[in-house]
Write a structure and sequence with these properties.
Blueprint (H helix, E strand, L loop, with lengths): L9 H10 L3 E7 L8 E7 L17 H14 L2 E7 L1 H22 L7 E5 L10 E4 L7 H24 L5 H4 L5 H10 L10 H8 L1
Parallel strand pairs: 1-4, 4-5
Antiparallel strand pairs: 1-2, 2-3
EC number: 3.1.26.4
Protein name: Ribonuclease HII
Enzyme class: hydrolase
Length: 207
């Protein structure tokens, strides 16, 4: 049995008290893949109606993430998902594109937060003041919920891209480094969804 701590609403409670309003959690998915967008989720949880089992998306199975996604959306005070495309990643670099996806996620929320808890230590410029939290998806329930929405939304989009570009196996590896992905790049070259400034893709193009 694991003795690790599970995320709570302690950070949200403190930030809400100091900021005087609703606080959202924000997290991203897809910073590392060779193809596809980077996604972000933003969630304001209702402390009186929390879906059981929320955790860092990386600690959950795909089946559990997919089951929690509609529960989070149905019970949250507000939620949003945003993307930045492969072309925007090339133009803005990955941190700029991640910040853009986070802004889009917050702007998509039906209720705007007065502050945000953001996973990691990078101070993105978002529509509201932020507090960074290293390892936040394992500490904050709101960030963990955002990580689930970001991950499931991106995975779903990569499955759709697999239908458009079936040679690359996007439904299986979601654009990340995998032997079948590398072999497909060698055989077919990059498709429009590949990040052409990414090391392996760039090396293939230059080769």
């Amino acid at each position: 049995m694991s003795d690790r701590a599970f995320p709570t609403l302690a950070l949200e409670t403190l930030l809400a008290q100091s900021s005087g309003g609703l606080v959202c959690g924000v997290d991203e998915a897809g910073r590392g893949p060779w193809a596809g967008p980077v996604s972000a989720g933003a969630v304001i949880l209702n402390p009186d109606d929390l879906p059981p089992g929320i955790d860092d998306s990386k600690a959950l199975t795909e089946k559990r993430r997919m089951a929690l996604e509609p529960e989070i959306k149905a019970r949250a005070i507000a939620w949003g998902v945003g993307f930045a495309s492969a072309r925007e990643i090339e133009e803005l670099k990955i941190l700029g594109a991640t910040g853009l996806a986070m802004c889009r996620a917050i702007e998509a929320m039906s209720v705007q937060p007065v502050a945000a808890l953001v996973d990691g230590n990078y101070r993105f410029k978002l529509p509201c003041p932020i507090q960074t939290v290293v390892g936040g998806d394992g500490l904050s329930l709101s960030i963990a919920a955002a990580s689930i929405l970001a991950k499931t939304a991106r995975d779903r989009l990569m499955v759709e891209m697999d239908a458009l570009y079936p040679a690359y196996g996007f439904a299986r590896h979601k654009g990340y480094n995998a032997p079948i992905h590398s072999e497909a790049l060698k055989l077919h070259g990059p498709c429009p969804e590949h990040r052409r400034t990414w090391g392996p893709v760039k090396a293939l193009l230059e080769g």
